[in-house]
Design brief:
Blueprint lengths: L2 H12 L4 H13 L1 H6 L1 H6 L2 H6 L3 E10 L5 E12 L5 E7 L5 H17 L5 E7 L8 H15 L8 E4 L6 H15 L19 H19 L8 E5 L3 H12 L3 E6 L3 E4 L6 H10 L7 H4 L4 E4 L10 E4 L8 H9 L4 E3 L8 H9 L3 E3 L1 H4 L1 H16 L5 H25 L6 H19 L4
Parallel strand pairs: 3-4, 3-5, 6-7, 6-10, 10-11, 11-12
Antiparallel strand pairs: 1-2, 2-4, 7-8, 8-9
Helix pairs in contact: 1-2, 2-6, 6-18, 7-8, 9-10, 9-16, 9-17, 13-14, 16-17, 17-18
The chain binds NADPH dihydro-nicotinamide-adenine-dinucleotide phosphate (NDP).
Length: 444
């Protein structure tokens, strides 16, 4: 049995009930075959793959808090510190009822390679809780965040592990967590990113993942003799990534005609109104059913459906495994040119293969959504030098990083004879840097 197959088998056996983690490991290791096979003997001897699929540390803890009725609630918190070979652990905190150890591990594993691809000195980690901020009062959210941070604060720090936002963790949650960390540890330091602008946050961090997604998609199109001008785009999601992806797509001359949340989706033939979307989601924290009140020409549909809409480019920006084989078939039948992942692992393995076989340019999330963590790293730099850069300065750096990520993955794919396969390119480029750093640091 090949070394790659052996390690995949071991991961499945040793981590039962973690299907998302198995999926992420398979996707990465399968595409690393050419590199592993070229170094099989030394990699096997040094257990390189066993070390890369095992987190350096995983922390699981109780999070008790009191709800508005005086009832004590108990959630579970997680922080997986996956790999610190190239810098302090860095990765978001997800607050969603679906969170479990396997989901946090899949996200942390992906984060190692994504962070490496940015070219910045950040290791991979991820955390979160099965707490659902939806429908909770501000006081309840604060009570949860304070309890969560009371435990988490023992394991993080500006030079060790710097968490950020993710699904369910926005500016409000980061603010409450930062306040509690400062109170407990007595230091004002850049321990979290995605902070408010009045206390160390970076301009353009809010926009970064969505904007970065469009910068890399623009570069992809440019390198294939096309542009975003006049293109029709479908987007899923209606959160942070989706909102700013839509905004930047419009600025670059494309038209985004859909968005979605966990209950339904919107089709707006005139292009999604970003101001309306922000008011519904960021201010009112309401459902997309409200969108029709702002745009009478639009349609609202219950359930899932954005991938059935004819488009040139598809940008999945909601959650994992939201674009399956049937969706990929519908997109191809409608003539899609490119799919770029704003979310983490939104496309199933079968769907990814189908898109690639049918000549669709496919940019995986670890490259396409790296703008968020890259700008978080820029926030860390600003915090360390106690300075704030202008919006344009951060945005220009973000654009440079995303263009660099595209060429980095494109060249890695070419080097190993997989031209145009950006999944292989991203995994190889991310992996090579991390393994070189791990080897240099001995068996740790
Ligand atoms: P938000 O919480 O702001 O938005 C998530 C959106 O996806 C919401 O519209 C939500 O709908 C929808 N959604 C969530 N879960 C499901 C589900 N199970 N089925 C259908 N729709 C769902 O999160 P973000 O925009 O920050 O994150 C979106 C994705 O991007 C995630 O995969 C995240 O890991 C990834 N990402 C985020 C980065 C960031 O900087 N924020 C950086 C890199 C990646 P509803 O409102 O109904 O919950």
């Amino acid at each position: 049995m090949s070394y790659v197959d052996e390690v995949i088998d071991r991961v499945v056996k040793e981590n039962p009930s973690e299907p998302e983690f198995h999926q992420a490991v398979k996707e990465v290791l399968e595409s690393l075959r050419p590199v592993v096979e070229a170094n099989e003997e030394s990699f096997r001897k040094d257990a390189v793959l066993e070390r890369i699929v095992n987190p350096e540390r995983q922390i699981k803890f109780r999070v008790p808090w009191v709800d508005d009725k005086g009832q004590v609630q108990v959630n579970t918190g997680y922080r997986v510190q996956f790999n610190s070979a190239i810098g302090p652990y860095k990765g978001g905190l997800r607050l969603h009822p679906s969170v479990n150890l396997g989901i946090i591990k899949f996200l942390g594993f992906e984060q190692i390679f994504k962070n490496s691809l940015t070219g910045l000195p950040i290791g991979g980690g991820k955390g979160g809780s099965d707490f659902d901020p939806k429908g909770k009062s501000d006081r309840e959210v604060m009570a949860f965040c304070q309890s969560f941070m009371t435990e988490l604060s023992k394991y993080i720090g500006a030079d060790t592990d710097v968490p950020a936002g993710d699904i369910g963790t926005g500016a409000r949650e980061i603010g409450y967590m930062f306040g509690q960390y400062k109170r407990l540890r007595g230091v004002f330091e850049g321990v979290l990113t995605g902070k408010g602008l009045t206390y160390g946050g970076s301009l353009a961090r809010t926009e970064a993942t969505g904007y970065g997604l469009l910068y890399i998609t623009e570069e992809l199109m440019k390198c294939h003799g096309q542009s975003l001008e006049g293109k029709t785009i479908v987007v899923s999601g209606a959160g942070n990534v989706a909102t700013y992806a839509i905004q930047k797509a419009h600025q670059l001359g494309a038209k985004v005609v859909t968005c979605s949340d966990s209950t339904g989706w919107v089709y707006d033939p005139d292009g999604i109104d970003v101001a309306a979307l922000k008011e519904i989601k960021e201010v009112k924290r309401a459902r997309l059913t409200e969108y029709k009140n702002y745009r009478p020409n639009s349609e609202y549909h219950e359930g899932k459906g954005v991938w059935t809409v004819k488009c040139d480019i598809a940008l999945p920006c909601a959650t994992q495994n939201e674009l399956d084989l049937d969706d990929a078939k519908a997109l191809v039948a409608n003539g899609v040119i490119a799919v770029a992942e704003g979310a983490n692992m939104p496309t199933t393995l079968e769907a990814t293969e189908y898109l690639q076989k049918n000549g669709v340019f496919f940019l995986p999330g670890k490259a396409a959504n790296a703008g968020g963590v890259a700008t978080s790293a820029l926030e860390m730099s600003q915090n360390s030098e106690r300075l704030s850069w202008s919006f344009d300065e951060v945005d220009a750096k973000l654009k440079g990083i995303m263009v660099g990520v595209y060429h980095n993955i494109d060249e890695a794919a070419k080097k190993y004879g997989f031209e145009g396969n950006y999944v292989v390119g991203a995994n190889i480029a991310g992996f090579e840097k991390v393994v070189t750093a791990m080897n240099a640091q001995g068996i740790v």
